[in-house]
Amino acid sequence: MARSARNAVGAFVAAGAAGTVLLLAGCASAVSGIARTAEGAASPATSSSIPTSAPVASTTPTTATAATTAAATTATTRTPVTGDTDRSVAPDPFGSISASTTVGGSGPLDLQTTAWFTAMCEGAQPLTDLADDMESLSSADAVIDAFSEFGALMTTLSTDLADVPPPTFPGGEEYAANVVDGFDRMGTLFTDAADALAEGDTSVLLGLEDELAADGPLQQLSGTDVSPDLQDAVEALPACQALYAG
Hints:
Keywords: Signal. This is Lipoprotein. Residues 1-30 form the signal peptide. Residues 41-105 are annotated as: Disordered. This protein has one domain (2-245). It is 61% helix and 2% strand. It contains nine helices and two strands, in the order H-H-H-E-H-H-H-H-E-H-H. The protein has a two-stranded parallel sheet with strand order 1-2. Helix 1 (2-15) packs antiparallel against helix 9 (238-245). The longest helix is centred in the C-terminal third of the chain and has 27 residues, at 172-198. The protein is elongated and about 50 Å long.
């Protein structure tokens, strides 16, 4: 995922649903790439090669790659919807979604809102660092370790954010709760996938991809959008700037 993954997490932090599309597409692409490694492995299952006994032949990496490209392209195009503080949601490559709620309002961030987004960006940074290396994984041990770490990081971020007072803008409490729940569920998905891979079950890759692409754990954000003022303010926070610089 490299640069696209870094941008996806950064976009998710500030742009809600639009970033969710990118993050889901990026994760699906990474999972598909790992599944391709499993499918194409010629050697028997060992501690250094991904087992090939699982039915991975039905994986469609071309579709996932196309979805990632489509998401990255459409997410940069924002067409105003109702009102001058709305920002449209990029089309979902896995289905049709539309924003039903816009949060954020206008004006500068207060201290509590600044603290919440700062905590979120600081917690998300390790995710982008790990995602940068995901496509290069080729051994079972490396995949298991990466999935386990990805899950642990997401679970930790969810736990830490739950202890931070939510943003104060209208809808901020629900927005924060959705983000916390989304990261918690994503953490569980990747941790469970790592455990299954450790037992030699590569079919979990297909299940994980389905979870991400269909009714995934971050899809609850698909009905939430943020105002341009909020996105701009979050992007300007020192802790968040690195997420957009990659």
